[in-house]
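Side project, low priority. Logging it here so it doesn't get lost.
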Amino acid sequence: MTSDSSLFAMSVPLAARMRPRSLSEVVGQSHLLKPGSPLRQLATPIADGKAPASTSVLLWGPPGTGKTTLAQAIARDSGRRFVELSAITAGVKDVREVMVQSQKERDAYGTGTLLFLDEIHRFSKAQQDALLPGVEAGWVTLIAATTENPSFSVIAPLLSRSLLLTLEPLSEDDIATLVDRAVSDPRGLNGEVALEAGERDQIVLLAQGDARRALTVLEAAGAHAASVGNTTIERADIEESLDHALVRYDRDGDQHYDIISAFIKSVRGSDADAAVHWLARMIEGGEDPRFIARRLMILAAEDIGLADPQALPLAVAAFETVQQIGMPEGRIPLAEATIYLALAPKSNAAYNAINAALEDVRAGMQPSVPKPLRSSNYAGAKGRGNGVGYVYPHDDAKAVVPQDYVTGKVAKRRYYIPKEVGFERELAERWAKLRAIIRGLGK
C-alpha cells in the first residue's frame, strides 16, 4: 500500500484524476444540464456541413462546483480543440496568439476551438477587450469562469455577447456520490482503502459543497491511513490530515459580503447563536477583525440605538481592545460584543430620525434660525434682535420652558419617535412630557 505503485504516490492530484470525461459523468448542476440546454447544445458533436453551437458562456459560481470540468467535458463531447488559459498568468499576447491559431485551425480544417478562461475577473479591461474579436467572429467559443459577480468584473461588451450561467454549491448527496466514486474508481483510490458512512459524512461536511475540497480531504485521509497500515479511513485519519476545518471564505469575493450580511442580520434579529456562528466563519476565514468590530459599532448605533445606550460604548470598547491585543485573543471581545448586541433590545428610532430630518433638509425645508436662538456674542447683535426674547431653561425649576426652537413646517414635524423597548421606553415617556411643555401643547 505504501509502495511507489500505490495510487497515493501519484503526482496527479485525486481531484484531477477524477475529473469527468464527458457531461454524462458530471454530478450536480442539473439545472444547467437539462436536455436542450445551452451547455448540452455546446456539447453536441460537430457534424459535417453543420455549424456547431458557438454561444460564449460565463460560468459564475463558488470554487469546486465544476466550471473547469464542464468546459473540458463540452470540448471532448463536441470534438472541439480545447485551449485553457488562466487569467492569473495569461496576458493580452497569449489571448491574441490563441485567436490567431484558432482562426487558422478553422480556416484550414473547419475545426472549432473552445477557449476556457479561468478567473476572468482577474483580467483587466484591455485583456478582456482582446477576447472580443475572436468571440464576435466565431474563431473561438469562449467559456469563462469566475467566482465573482460578472456584472462588476466583466466588461459590458463581453457580457452582452455571452450567456451568464450560475453554478450552485454541490449538494451533500452530490458530494457523497463523488466521494464514493473516487474510493472505488480505478482512476481514484481503486479500493485501496475503504470508507465507512460516518467518515464519508465527515468529509462531505468539510467539503461545504466544493467537490475539489472533498476529494482533496479524501486523498489526504487515505494517504494517512495507508501510511500507518490501515485499510479503512478512520475519523483520526481525517483529523490528522487537516490542521483545521477548511472554511470557504473569500475576503475579496461574494462570500465576504454574504457572510457579513448574515452576521449583521442575525444580530439585528436577536439570534445570538447564529451571530456567533457567522462570527466564527469570518474569524476562521481570516477576515480583518477590525472590519468586524467596525460593523458592530455601526450596528450598535443603527439597530440598538437608545434602547440600550450601553451598546455603542461596548462596541467601541471591543474595537479598541481588538486593535490593542490583536488575534487570536481578539476573538473574545468580538464574541462578547456580538452576544451583547444580539440580546440587547432593538430600536432604530434615532436612525430613522436623522434620515427623516436629512430628507426634509435636502427637500428645501430649511427655516431661518429664530431670532431668540441666534448668537448675541458680538457687537450690535442685540440691535438686530439676536438673542432677544430667549428664555433660559435653568431659570425654571424643571429646566424646561415653552420656547420655539424651530419655526415653520419643521416645528410640526416629528423626527424622533421612540419605541416602547428597553431604556427607550423611559425616553418615550420623558420626551412626550418635554415636548408638550416646549411646544405649549395641552394648554
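Brief comment: Residues 4 and 10 are 8 Å apart (CA to CA).
Revisit when time allows.
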